[in-house]
Structures are given as structure tokens and as C-alpha cells.
Amino acid sequence: MPNQKKLIVSHAPFCHDGSNISTRSNNIMLAALPAVLHGCYLYGFPAVGVVALSISSAIIWEYLINLLTKRPATIGDGNAAVIGMMVAMLFPATTPWWAVITGTFVAIVVGKQIYGGIGGNPFNPALIGIAILMLSWKNIFDIDQALLNYEFNFASAYPLVALKHYGVSSVDSYNLAGILMGNQTGSIGSGFGLALALGGLYLILRGFIRWEISLSFLAALLITSLFFQLYDTGKYAGPLFHLLTGNTLLGAFFLATEDSSSPANFIPMIIYGAGTGLMVMLIRNIGGHADGVVFAILLMNLTNPLIDKIRPKAMGKVNSHA
Amino acid sequence: MKKRPFICLSEPHLEYDVIEPGCELNIIPVPKKAVLFFGTAYDKKGSPLFKEGDRVKTGQKLILYADSEEYVISTVTGTISSVSPYAGDFGKSYTSVQIDVSEDETDDAFEKVSAEQSIETVKNYLSYLPGNLPIKSFLDPGNKIDTIVITGVDSDLLVVTSQYIVNSKMEHIIKGIKILRSIPGINNIVLAVRRDSLHGYGNIGAEVKNISTRYPSAFGQLVIKESLGREVQAGKKPEDIGICVINAEAVASIGIAFSNNTIPTDKIFTLINKDGTKKLVSARIGTPISDILKAFNITLNHGDRLILGGPMAGSPVYSEDYPVLPDTDAIMVQDKNYIQPFSDYPCINCGDCIRICPANIPVNMLIRYLEAKMYQQAADEYDLYSCIECGLCTYVCVSKMPISQYIRLAKYELAGINTAEAANA
Questions:
Q1: Residue A68 is part of which domain span?
Q2: Does one domain contain both A300 and A164?
Q3: Per the CB < 8 Å rule, is A1 touching B359?
Q4: Distance CA B344, CA B382 (A)
Q5: How many angstroms away from the CA of B313 is the closest CA of chain A?
């Protein structure tokens, strides 16, 4: 058959719904942006510096690893930027520059790239970065000390630390509606509860995060804290306080839902989310840390490969236990 | 094709197309050259029972080699101009027979026996019918077929062929059902139609069942599940549980054959143009696709894609000379600007494929094993053989991975390994 035009042949299917990773990353950053902007407004230029340095250094680390391992550059997918943004949201505004760069190094290199890059990480990379820093330089994450030179027109003690050290009576000094609107101290991206919740809702509606994880996380957190409160009202704070303070909303919508380190089947997602919510409350009420979100999510990341084995029977398979 | 919706709380729904009322059938004239395909490989040393220069008549039965059971019904009258091998998918080879067409003359062999409306006659003369009658399933004594499922629904998106047949050829389908009833052992015949197209069909001799209009519910295994409540085991065929799935067009063709005492030779199919517009076309089996494209002024350029079947589960061909075959339900032309390359990105574990998979396969795990070429583990632990190859996982994959392609490759590789092991055992 001489002089024939060549046709493209490949197996079916021949169409795609047009989704891609960079759209996903951009939307996650867009959803997180209001909370970050609020942090920048509240803490001023130091916070802007931390966010900018964190995102840029995360991208640079990823690119350097791409060069070092002689693999195609993957910074275009936006995943490194998302990790950088998440790390920044977990830092207090006065975090020194070297800590930011170390944090993103651990997040990108140790948390993600040594496992083969995107999709291969068993833990949330941003949380790996933060957890290592928390264990190494504990003082950086002492919010009250970090924000010592700031003056706010609301109760300026970090709510969870106040609760831990001064008991439930200290909770009364906080106005829950004010906390929801961002009138609380904390890490850069975790203060503005309303923005985080709306951002999370946006991501759920767009299908970029899995609602099962977020909702079961929050439900388990509320129920557990309610039980604690009912058990001893004088010792434990109520569910709404725990919902709105610390990294709860940030964790529920942006951290626990990280694709690679969380389950993808329905029942496992519920178990994973609920387990995280439960662990957060156990750490906050019984454990040694003021806020347990970082470690609770990392702990449940660990269980992901096991619990994600719970899945519906595939079509045409005979149940071997029947 | 439908893009990912802005609000995407649950998995995207792909709905089958409904045939437009008053959709006209475009009839393509008999081609000057026709090509017939034999499923048997071309044997260089073999001696075909016909050779170049032989004359054939419309409706004449052609047998390639004396020892093969397979036959082809010539759909045109003319002179055989060449007999040559054709390489298909996954290294399969066929024999293509080209015929220079002249004035139609009908072979009367079928007419003589058509008074006897039995499965024997169907077996001897009607296996090369429009709609591709799976006659081998009935003949194999190993299959104890007791149920026939007639699909009046098109399995792929954009295709409306079967709907047209059900809407316009019901009397022939009823006659075909009557003949299928006469097969010994058959005690249940089911006609599957779209859920929203159910208007009283009356007593057609078969049970009418409604099938969901969401892709891929018209796939054989899912039709069986929805209409009979039975499940075909992973890796098995419907025939293994005594069910034969037949296209509505094949049943209608049986009816037409016995009504007119001639073997029908015209295949009805949906032609899907580059812009997604559809046309219903009727052409002689054996008409080269280039003739059909010419009739509708469709130009095929370098780098375009020509697909037999629909956008989700069709199979592409590399040559415009490929003919219309008895199982060609659709011909689709895709512009090169529309064709998106796959990527070598890894799975990011977003779970979209798991939510959309109709067979409940853990696609996120399966694809990791397939990428590592661990095919046997993929089959043992991650349900490779449950896949019905609907292509939805690939359609939604955010990493643009060729998932369905990996699955097909794995099945092919495993089949090769199993054959080799059986041979050496």
C-alpha cells in the first residue's frame, strides 16, 4: 500500500474528561488562599515572608531533586507549590528563614521525592516537614512565644495552650464567633475557620478532595470531644471550641485529604477520617501536645495501606470466605 | 465528549445517546471493490478452495481451507482479485479476500433450503450475517446455552445502531426470536432495551427488560447482571454460565433471511464525524471505509484516527481500505487536534477511577502492579479479570494514564504465558 497517510492507532478509550493535576493543585491553593491572606493580614510582613519563602523553596527543592535524579521537571504540576503552601500555613508567622527552608526540604525531599515523587508518598509530605521541625526545634512552634511582640484586639493566648495549662475556665475568655472569623492566634493558615471551611466546601463540591474523609474527621472530632465534655465538664472543653481552634479545619480539609497518603475506597475513607478525628481529641485531652492534628494525621497515614484493603467485592468474584 | 463538570461531587455520569426521532438511513451504493475477511490466518503453503480470478455470486458460501469450519458469505457478485494476509490487533492475522464487483447475481443455495426454518440452516448459511451472529457459541457442545440475551442497546457512547434496529425492524426481530426458540435447550430469551424507550412491544416471544441508560450498562456482562440478576465470573464468558448474548441486528437479520429467502448483506451502522455529528448508514458488508467517508465528504488526514466502534471501547484501524464487517456497529473519525497523548505520570491516588469503575476494581492498586509488570499478582489480588474494558478509568484519570491499555496488555501477556505453560506442561 504505497504512499499512504498514517493514522493514529491506540487502544480504546479515545477521549478524556480533560482533568489534570495542575488544575487540581491550583484549585487547592485557591481554596487555601483566603485563610493565608487572613494570616498575612493579621501577622503582617513576617507572615508574607514565610509564605513566599516556603512556596518558592518547596518548588526549588523539587526542581533540584528533578535535576539530581535526571528525571523530567515536575514543578509544573503545582504539587510542590501546594506542599510549600501547606507547610507555610502550619508555621507561626515569626518562623526564622532557615527553619522554613529546612521544613520544605524535609517535606519535599524526605516526605515526597525519596518515595518516587507525586503519588508515591506514604505520609503527607507537608506534615512530615512540620513534624520533624516540631521535634527538632520545639520552641519555634510555641505560638505564644512566637507572637510575643504582637498586640491583638482579642484574647491573644493560643487557645489550645491556654486550655491545656489553665483549664476550661480559660475557654470563657474566647468568643467562638470571633474565633470563627479569625480572631485567634495560631499558625499562619489555621486561624480563619470560616475561610478554611468555605475553601474545603469548594474543594468538596469541585471533587478535588474526598468529602468522606473531611466529614468523618470532623464528625469523629465533635463526637469524641462531646463525650469528653460530658464525662467531665470541669476538665474538658466543648466540641465547638475544638472544632474552631488549632489546626482542626486546616487538617480536615487540606491535610488529611492529601491524595497519596489517604485511602480511596469508601469504608476506609470513613475509618481513616474518623480515626484521625478521634486521635486528635485523644492527643489534645490526654496526650502531651496542645494540638494533635499533625501527629494524628501522620499516625492515620500509617494505617492507610492496611485499611484501604477493605473494599467491595469486584464484579464476577466469588467471595472466598463464603 | 463530555468534560469534567464544574461541580463534581459524585463521579461524572456518561449517558448513552438517544436516537433522534426521524433519523434517516443513508444508503451507500454497492462498492466497486469489496473486501471480505476470514478470521483464519492466511497460510502461504495452504491451498485455498478458491483463487484469484474465480467468480463469486452474492450470497455464495466461501470456504477458505477444506479443513476449516469457518465460512464467509460473499456479499457481492464479482471476480476475486486477491487473497492476502491482514495483520490485526495483538498480532492476530486474518485473510482478506478482495473482489472486483460486477452486476449483482444471487446465489440460490440458501433459497433452496430456506423453507426449513431451523438452526441447522442458520448454522450452515447465516453465520456471516449483519450483526455478527455468535453461531459458534451455540455449536460448541461444551456450552450448555439455555438463555439468550438480545441486546437492543448500543454498548458504546454516541452509537445508535441497535436502537434503530429495535425501533424499525421489530417484526424481523420477532421472526428471528421464533427461530431461536427452536434451538433445543433454549428456555429463556430476553430482549434488553433502553429504560426510557419502553413502549408496549406486545407479545414478541421474549421477555423485554429495561436497561439503565448510563454508560456502560449495555456491556454484555452488565446487561446479564441487570436483566437476569446473574453474574459472569471474572475471566469467564457469558457462555460459561449458559448465556449467549446476541446483537438485535443479528436476530433481525435471521428474520429477514427467512422472510425474503435471501441472505441479508447490508450492515447498518452509525457514522460519527469529526465534529461528533452522527449519521445512520447502511452499506454492503465488505465496502471499504474509504468509500463511506467519500460518500459523506469526510477527509481523513495524516495523524487522524479511524475507529471501528465508539469512543470508549472501539478499536482503531490503520487503513482506510478496511471494510465494513458484520460486527461494525459504528465508524468514528477523530481529528488529530482532538487526540490527546497519554502521559507517563504516576497514579496520584485520587480515587476517581475507583468511584467510576462499574466492576468495583481497586484500579489505583491494579495500575501500580501493571506498571511494574506484575501481571500475575494483579490478576490474583487486584481483580484484573473483573475488568470489562469500558475505559471509564482512563477517561477520568487525572494523571492521563493509559489504564485500560495497561489492562489489555496484561491480559494479553498473561494469556501468552498461560498458553506457553500449557504447551510445556
A1: 21-140
A2: yes
A3: no
A4: 22
A5: 5
